[in-house]
Write a structure and sequence with these properties.
By secondary structure, this protein is an alpha+beta fold. The chain is built from four helices and 13 strands. It has one domain: Clam (outer membrane lipoprotein receptor (LolB), chain A), CATH 2.50.20.10. The protein has a 13-stranded antiparallel sheet with strand order 6-5-4-3-2-1-13-12-11-10-9-8-7.
Length: 261
């Protein structure tokens, strides 16, 4: 048997095993059971809580563009995040300092920092919580609902919907064997309109005892040309300067000169 044939057979067997597992055991599952298994699969609550900072570096290919940007993301508890994406010495920045969101958009001709809207800030607030709402949901003001078995790209998953305090809904799809997240569907109301975004996760690797995805693809629900982020390194608990998240001072207000009226 060739190695490719063996891998194909193993993959098919895994799908059958997953389907059988869900068919035979879904009725006996409870939300608490699934959450406990998911947390254990990630590395356990103690290991997750022991991580206070994350520094992730890699590359990003925006959906619809054949370019790769240098990408890095920094997260610090209890809720600060900064994302940099650089191409040809120009760096897009989006950050949340635990209170306010801001950005720099040089590709749009805006090289000075500017405040983000409350709708845009929500996404950064959610990004800053690397634990996610499946951990400490009640304390975070989130409610969880088990939606049962749902097929994702032909494979069975357990679906758990988290309704956040801000009204956003994140539906987590968990692989029934690995119990790690394979997709999150995000439902947001932004500027009065509903948006649905799918984010797929893969290539999980363990960092300081906790599994993190090193491959992330996202885009509007149903889209095929997705934004893709690939991490080369993920470092936990490195010292991070709090100033990383602070909005830089803008240029001084120009002095108006001229004749007095």
């Amino acid at each position: 048997m060739t190695s490719k044939k063996l891998l194909a057979d193993l993959a098919f067997a895994s799908v059958l095993a997953s389907a059988a597992l869900i068919a035979s055991g879904a009725a006996a599952q409870t939300l608490d059971d699934l959450i406990a298994r998911h947390i254990a699969a990630r590395g356990g609550l103690v290991a997750i809580k022991a991580i206070n900072t994350l520094k992730m570096t890699g590359s990003m290919r925006p959906g619809g563009f054949d370019v790769h940007l240098t990408y890095d993301e920094t997260i610090v508890r209890p809720g600060s995040v900064r994302i940099n994406a650089t191409l040809q010495s120009l760096t897009v920045v989006q950050a949340y300092d635990g209170k306010d969101g801001w950005q720099i958009q040089p590709f749009q001709g805006r090289k000075d920092p500017e405040a983000l809207s409350s709708d845009d800030t929500k996404s950064l607030q959610e990004e800053a919580d690397f634990e996610g709402p499946l951990i400490d949901a009640k304390a975070k003001g989130a409610t969880l609902d088990y939606l049962g078995s749902v097929d994702i790209d032909g494979a069975p998953t357990y679906a758990i919907r988290a309704t956040l305090k801000n009204g956003d809904q994140l539906t987590y799809y968990l692989d029934p064997v690995a119990m790690l997240t394979v997709r999150i569907e995000t439902r947001q109301i932004a500027r009065g309109a509903e948006t649905l975004t799918d984010t797929d996760f893969g290539d999980y690797e363990k960092v300081d005892g906790v599994y993190f995805p090193f491959e992330i693809a996202s885009g509007p629900k149903g889209a095929t040309d997705l934004q893709r982020i690939t991490y080369d390194t993920v470092v936990a608990n490195a010292p991070i300067d709090p100033a990383t998240f602070a909005r830089p001072a803008g240029p001084p207000t120009p002095k108006i000169t001229g004749a007095k009226p």
